[in-house]
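Protocol step 4 of 6: structure prediction from sequence.
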Amino acid sequence: MKVRPKITELVGVGLATVWSFSLMLAGLWSAVVGSGRWPAFSTALWAAGIAAIAAGHVVFLACVAERIFPNANRNIVLWMEMVSCATFVAASIVCLYALFPWSLRPG
């Protein structure tokens, strides 16, 4: 009966790894290829790519690294997660501003 929790944890880590890899791959495509392919949306696609890369990093830190390295220094992990979350929020705001500039300007 000791095997079952290990298999469940392995499946969870595997799914989270695929999820974070997908976010990072989509972010890289958006920032590198998409911004060059559609120049009218280059700023929005670049910012969306950075946001997706940061989101993939947060998913990997929270779901995979925490399980594989449970005894990691919590201060370092916390700062890495905070920087990734701040990058995600900032890039999302830039993306929204690039897509909807009229709705964010006062008056």
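Step 5 (inspection) to follow. The mean pLDDT is 88.
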